[in-house]
Amino acid sequence: MSCVCRFTRQGLLRFRDFLQDARTNSGASMSRANLWDSVAAVPIEGPVTFDPLSGTQRLHAAEYVEKIMVCSGGRELLELDVEFWAWLAAANFDALCLKDRKTGCYEVGMDSSYWIPALHDDRRRARHRLSGPYFAIRAHRSDIASAMGVLGSKLNGYHDLNERVLSKAQFETSHAVNFVVTSLYYSAQTKGIKAGVNGTRAGSARRLVDVLTQFALTYDLGALSGTQLLSMLPREFDRFRG
What we know:
By secondary structure, the chain is mainly α. The chain contains 14 helices and four strands.
């Protein structure tokens, strides 16, 4: 039975090579040797049995990682372990990365932090497909329902809510900000993100971040309730209310 691992230096280099190749080669794949060969990877403390990620939302990814953290007993070390996060993304790559329908190549993107996290860069840390959701749920364990705006999006796609909201540490941990994001953009009925959130149109996620950034210059967002902050938004966001 296979265990959850972390990459060695050699394994991380192999993963970087795979990511480069996957952008243009429809036949690129993460072989078992790259994941469990002793030269490329070593088991994390525990050990923890590996089960593949299932589910469609970032919430499912966060809960998946949380289970591994609990089973390992080494949360503090793993949270800061780039090689662990990279290995976990590689082992679940097909669940985390879509393929282009025309070319058959993985939609890897040009920023490797989606797969190998930039843990010490607040702006880019949230991009990682697994560490981003995990740190979001860690900040809002007491009220996950209010954080579904960033946890309810698809785990295998690029989305402005995650790219913009979670890229600011002040917004990532703010319960008021996440309440607003969820109230505006998450549909409890469809259990997904509403249409029209991406882009630069009035009321979009990017516009919300611009408005909240301006508010932060005048107000202490941490002292506001979610309802108060929501009521302060200009009328352009009315189309997403309710």
